[in-house]
Amino acid sequence: MAQMGFFIDVKKCIGCKTCTVACKDKNDLEVGRNFRRVYDFEEGTFPKPYTYHISIACNHCDEPGCVKGCPTMAMHKREEDGVVVVDESKCVGCRYCEWNCPYEGPQYDEAAGKMTKCDTCLDLREKGENPVCVDSCIMRAIEFGPIDELRAKYGNVNEIKGMPSASLTKPNIVIHY
Ligand code: SF4
Ligand code: SF4
């Protein structure tokens, strides 16, 4: 299967954070642990200030710093679709993956002492459904699919002002800005 990724339409996003909440609800995440987050930016000066928002989860990168940083190989990239997941039976809770990710993808579960993260809703995908963030977005600002198809449809922008350099981990994200 092809490498999978997300498309984020910054032009459509209104910053409502429904995607964050839907993801928290599905994954039963406590306050402070967010697999998907919405970052807000302010630009310009009076009389033409403007804001924009970008919804970011794990980007299932081609060169994932989290995987390189993991000493137990708990954090790994699936061969079948390039999705980066944690094997909790191998995770020792050292948080090295968190330090090596520029996107705050790994989210630590204090109670369990294990790392957790976006797995692209593998359980929903097995049933032929989308990740919950995609279908919850009231503005239809998020898509998920083979990254080659998303790039053919929307282009190759994978970083915008305010984001980490895409050269660090080669994220599988396409952004319309
Ligand atoms: S649900 Fe859609 S519009 Fe709302 S913050 Fe997330 S991406 Fe933006
Ligand atoms: S976004 Fe972070 S957690 Fe996700 S694959 Fe890339 S480096 Fe790893």
At a glance:
By secondary structure, the chain is α+β, with helices and mostly antiparallel strands. It has helices at 18-27, 65-69, 96-99, 122-126, 132-136, 147-154, and strands at 4-9, 37-43, 50-56, 75-77, 84-86, 107-109, 114-116, 142-146, 173-176. β6 (107-109) and β7 (114-116) form a beta hairpin.
Structural class: alpha+beta
- Approximately what portion of the residues adopt beta-strand conformation? 15-25%
Tally of helical segments: 6
Radius of gyration: 16 Å
User: What overall geometry do the principal axes of the alpha carbons give?
Assistant: globular
Specify the biggest β-sheet.
Answer: 3 strands, mixed
Distance between the termini: 28 Å
- Listing every helix as H and every strand as E from the N terminus to the C terminus, the arrangement reads EHEEHEEHEEHHEHE
Bound molecules: iron/sulfur cluster
For the secondary structure, the number of strands is: 9
**Uncertain segments:** none
Strands of the largest sheet, in order across it?
A: 8-1-9
Task: Report the mean per-residue pLDDT as an integer.
Answer: 97
- Tell me roughly what share of residues is in helical segments: 10-25%
